[in-house]
Design a protein that fits this description.
Length: 263
Amino acid sequence: MMTRMKIEIKDTSGKTLFAHEEDGNTIRKTLQIAYASKASLEKADLAGAHIIGVDLTNANLTGANFAGAYLLKANLTGANLTGANLSDAGLTRANFSGADLSGADLRHAHCFRAIFDDARLVGANLEEILFDLTNVVGANLTNANLVSARLRNTFFADAILVDANLSHADIMETRFIGANLAGANLTASACRGAYLKNANLERANFSGAMVYHVDFSHAILGSANLSGAKITRGDFTGTHLAGVDFSEAALHDVDLSKAIHRI
């Protein structure tokens, strides 16, 4: 016999936004009914909740608290998550396509096979986030904080990372093809097997970075800072290198003869 259960969804100040009671009730069921009923979910406090497979397409979740929540296969396509807290959240296979996460907190979040295509993450805090086999194609991460982020086999093709901070990031087999990383900070980062073909890296800072087997072909590195970087087996075919600072950089098995050294 199922137990009748009443579950309330409250906001971060403790105010009840929605309540639902039925036999065998769950937080997922209550949240789904609240969404279908068009109840306000702004600043909803769902910290630590297990919400598997919930569909919140285009939901207004401004300022919501999902800290430590488990959102396996959640559909948040087009959702408004500006200023939301998703720190330490489990986002395996979650879909944030076209969602607005500007100013959101995703520190330490775990994103395995998640989708952030065309999402807006302007000024978002992604410090120490894990992106593993995740799609971030065409997303806007201008001024985002990715300090010490772990990027594994992730796709940032055509993404905007202007002035993003990726210092100390661990970047492996990740694709930034055609991405805009102008002014990005990659100091002391570790880039292994990354693809930066056709990327805009003007004024990017790779000082002290370890760059191994990275494809910079046809990228624009004008006025970039690679001072003190350790670069091994990089592909610089057709790369624009005008004004690049290679002072004290260590280049091993690198051929710059096919690069473009002038404006």
